[in-house]
Design goal:
6-stranded mixed sheet; Rossmann fold; alpha/beta; 8 strands; two-stranded antiparallel sheet
């Protein structure tokens, strides 16, 4: 029966970035900072979404969904963007979200975003995870192999030091963050579009 339903429905692709539904977004972050956070998401009484893993232990009311990607140094690539994805030590949650970008629903090729198997052809190094001893040299080498101009976009709370003491920025320059544990595909796409210098809401 599900095969017949699927054939009738056909392939549906997300309308993002033209519009996005609430179902495509991650649970919202707290509107007010809790007094204490075991993951360090509160620094000096201020909430830091880069370190929040959405555990909801703080019991703060959840409301409006906040912008969680923070791109400080974008490119000017209006037509296409080539991305090399590197896992430097994840639980594989971020990897599953990145894999969804290739699905018919998200289909990032329609937005001019292409994944390359080598950093030598990449404009953006997309990094996930807490850097492990074995992957630190790989991370540095991948960055060095990339042609200029090059940028680094990191995913998830662990890459920004929420779950371990190491951060990706300790080893290579970082130009943007997509927070979450894990960030969902729409948030990743939004971060990549902003990294390419495209206007997105």
């Amino acid at each position: 029966m599900w095969i017949i339903r699927g054939l009738k429905k056909g392939v549906i692709t997300s309308d993002y970035p033209k519009k996005v539904s609430d179902e495509e977004l991650s649970p919202s972050f707290p509107l007010e900072a809790p007094d204490e956070c075991p993951f360090g998401a509160v620094e000096g009484g201020r909430f830091n979404p880069k370190r929040c893993i959405s555990c909801r232990l703080c019991n703060v009311p959840f409301g409006r969904k906040l912008d969680v990607d923070d791109v400080t140094n974008s490119l000017d690539f209006k037509r296409s963007l080539h991305v090399f994805f590197l896992d430097v030590g994840t639980c594989h949650a971020c990897n599953r979200e990145v894999a969804q970008l290739h699905s018919p629903y998200y289909d990032v090729h329609r937005l001019g975003i292409f994944f390359t198997p080598t950093p030598k052809h990449a404009d953006v190094l997309l990094v996930a995870g807490c850097p492990t001893d074995g992957m630190i040299p790989v991370l540095r080498e991948a960055y060095e192999l990339m042609p200029e101009p090059k940028r680094v976009l990191v995913l998830g709370a662990c890459s920004s030091g929420a779950l371990c003491r190491r951060k990706v920025e300790d080893f290579v320059p970082v130009d943007g963050y997509v927070a979450g544990c894990p960030p969902n595909p729409v948030q990743i796409i939004r971060g990549l579009l902003k990294m390419a210098g495209r206007d997105v809401e």
